[in-house]
Amino acid sequence: MLLIPLREKNKILAQRTSALTRRRLSWLIFMSSLPLFGVVTAFGIAPGTSFKSIPIEAIVRDLSIPDILQNTNSNSTYWHQENIQRGDTISAILTRLEIKSQDKVAFLSAARESKAMRRLMPGKTIYAQTTAEGELLMMRYFFGNEELFLMEKVDHVFQMSEQQIELDAHIRMRSGRVNSSLFGATDRAGVPNNIAMQITEIFASEIDFHRDLRQGDRFTVVYETLHNNGEQAKTGRILAAEYINEGKSHKAIYFQAPNGEGGYYTPEGISLQNEFLRSPLTFSRVSSGFSNSRFHPVLKKWRSHRGIDYAAPTGTPVKATASGTVSFAGTQGGYGNLVVLRHRGKYDTAYGHLSRFAKGVRNGTRVSQGDVIGYVGATGLATGPHLHYELRVNGEQRDPSKIALPTAPPIAKQHMAAFHRESKSLVSRMDILSNTNYASLN
User: Fold this and answer.
1) What pLDDT digit, counting tens, does each position of 383-421 carry?
2) What is the DSSP letter of 208?
């Protein structure tokens, strides 16, 4: 019999335990990887089975790593979609794509004369093909009026082209339900962000998406996607949409008259484009409403608040709620940086506490509805960044949520028959999709 000292015996046991731990780790790593390759294990247990009398024996085996894990194909390529963000540069986008520095420098050199790279539009998408090691093989970007930027590596050298392309239109239909936010609902339904933005703009005269949004609201949208050689290049415009807010249905149909002018109308042909938008900000919240008596947070006294305050981050774009002319752009007392617009007839609008004015906004400048005229700030008597907005009628501030504002003219009689033919088809599409999804939610 071989006698082993207790100290040596403990060392041997420790070594065995360490080896056992390593083998178990190898086994666990291997087993955790199995579902990736489609292995499914099912366990069947008969009712009433007792586990007390079953002997338990631990079996540990060394398993070789499958070839599929050992031989990763270094030649694999991947397509990435990178959304352009506000203030983005192509250098920042290449960094997010984890392009290796050598290719990044070569790309920037090859693209230095590109007009597309100087026109990176927030919300649009850049498509890039790379290797696992971060080598850039190709980049595509659809910009401008149906133009394609293409950068392709040929014999280790980047070659750039920018050209007009022919796009084919396809029709898409989506429907969803609002649980918390409109953008959350459109994301779940697979609706692109720019289509969601169009929904808010189309119904801006009927629904205030700051205050009127409710849990359980539903939407249905029919829109175009534009394709080049079978691949989607960009999303187009909404052709028809329905938004059900607190049980009330709002429908919009796009119609383009023979003279080329297009717009959104109800199924009856009434224009949805009011002369004034309901809000100068796309998304925000009302921090203070129109009131004859409000405690001023800076002056610390009660006084009237003859406008509506929208809380939003500094730099948020402020839009003109109606077409008109800039009658004042400068600094004015408690308003801080202020823009006042003169509109048709008896109406004026004012936009206060701006951090800065939009480029070109000065006295006498003509602006169109939806144009950016400035950016949210906290100038003047303000405790934080927000927009103070006023609607003035004959020089008197009025509550914009309680006044009837003029609308655009309806469809001309000579175009009504053509409009009804188009709207009937689009409304039928929406009704089918809306009814199908509504049934699945109940």
Assistant:
1) 889 999 999 999 888 887 777 777 777 888 899 999 999
2) -
